[in-house]
Amino acid sequence: MSGEERRNLIVTRLQECGGPISANKFAEEFSVTRQIVVADVALLRAAGVPIVADNRGYTLRAVDETRVKRLVVKHGKSEVSDEFYAIVDNGGKVLDVIVEHSVYGRLSAELNISSRYDADEFVRKINETKANPLSLLTEGVHIHTIVVESEDAFSRIKQQLWGLGILIEATE
Length: 172
Prior knowledge:
Layout: H1 3-16, H2 23-30, H3 34-46, E1 51-54, E2 57-60, E3 68-74, H4 80-88, E4 92-101, E5 105-113, H5 116-129, E6 141-148, H6 151-163, E7 167-171
Antiparallel strand pairs: 1-2, 3-6, 3-7, 4-5, 4-6
């Protein structure tokens, strides 16, 4: 099987699957190494295929761009769960986190948090590894790209984050 055929199959499997597929699973299926799969995914992303990676594997991001919003927020490490709950409980999904660092420039990480379970897993891993969220590099100020179910959902999210004292700005 050629690399191009394998990459086409990766996209097909991601389109057919309802959930994430790990690089190890792809490697086993195609009888290649995990590193080859990672390189294939990098090539697909460079070609514009909207593949998202998280700790569970790869998925395709199929998003109506009119539902993509940005939130500028500020909070400490102890408010991470509250922030995520406010978003997912009101019909949103957190796609990423972005910080604008004075030395390194824009830093971002994919999150793909769509439930309280995902939020709790993120916080558990942060605590377990004694890592700090990216937002602590910028005194708690960070940006989230989110996807919302509707404009009403976006309004609810903004209202709850504002009430928590977390929201600085929300953009369409």
